[in-house]
Amino acid sequence: MSLVRIVGALDPHVHLRGMEWAHKGDFATETAAALAGGYTAVLDMPNTPPPTTDSQGLERKLDDLGRNARCDYGVWLGAHPSGVRPEAELALLARGVCGIKLYCGHTTGGLTITASQMDRHVASWPGPGVLAAHAEGESVSVFLTALARHGKRGHLCHIDTARAVAEVAEHKSRGTKVTAGVCPHHLLFCDRDLPSLGPRGVMKPPLGTPSDREALWEGIRRGVIDVVESDHAPHTWDEKLGLPTPFGVPGLETTIPLLFTAVREGRITADRAVELVSVAPRRIFGLDPRPAGTYTLVDVGARRTINQESLYTSCRWTPFSGMEVWGVIRRVVIRRTVVFEDGEVLAPKGFGSNLYDNFC
Length: 360
Ligand code: NCD
Ligand code: ZN
Description:
Oligomer: single chain
Number of strands: 13
Mean pLDDT: 97
Bound molecules: N-carbamoyl-L-aspartate, zinc ion
């Protein structure tokens, strides 16, 4: 065995579903998927029914997560499409979340905001959490400009084009406080794969060109891209076969093995892989210092074929089905308790803790 130890692997971008979308996946099944994928913590996105855009929505989600999560978690607040919340409410909400998510384009859920609203949301966010944006095309520069103008710290989610990589690089060199994430599907697929992927290739942002894909790898190597995030977004297979095809693909159980496959292929070093899924996300999302007794052992010398039948995610499909990967998750430990070992999830429902309880 050739074991790599990752301390506190954190996926900062997941859609666990649950509540009124429990048919797609719930907090128990999708946090089991997180453990099976080698993650000890996840940050859940707000585009759920009910949406996590006010205190009621936040309380409902935290209550459900508290009873069902098998791994540690944090929750994203969503920028309300009807405008910025009153200052006192926003200040209170900000203490219970990892940050605020701005949806600057059409996607799953109804949280899309306009470019002019974006600037107001950026200006009024009190922190300490991060402002994160789903931005494509023109909205990338609108978000980056707003961060620079207001001196705020932000994270550009699932960066997908060569142009976006160049824009982030430019802003970083000027001192804009921005970090960027990339998803495995954008690193491994491109628009030429759409015919063979079918509905498995439908997600936001969409798959780019082969040169976009190369620019993303280059962005990782040059440090323009800081984090690999799965954007785990399960929809049932029946929903994926329907029209219009819903956007999103699951990813929690495949991201870490796919990254160590890239290590094996010489695209990145093992240290860089660990940085992308643990060191950098923990630093960016306020979770330093390193948690005690919380780690994952990955056997990077073991090979397996991704088999959708054996996934823990309740949707039971993946765009990476059939791929040969290097990297088998042997053990996951949270606060000195073994929560996953050799294919079996051991953590009961409710084992997970909220990492942002009274975040200040
Ligand atoms: C996400 C989902 O289904 O919740 N879908 C996706 O394609 N990424 C929403 C999102 O993050 O855009
Ligand atoms: Zn997402």
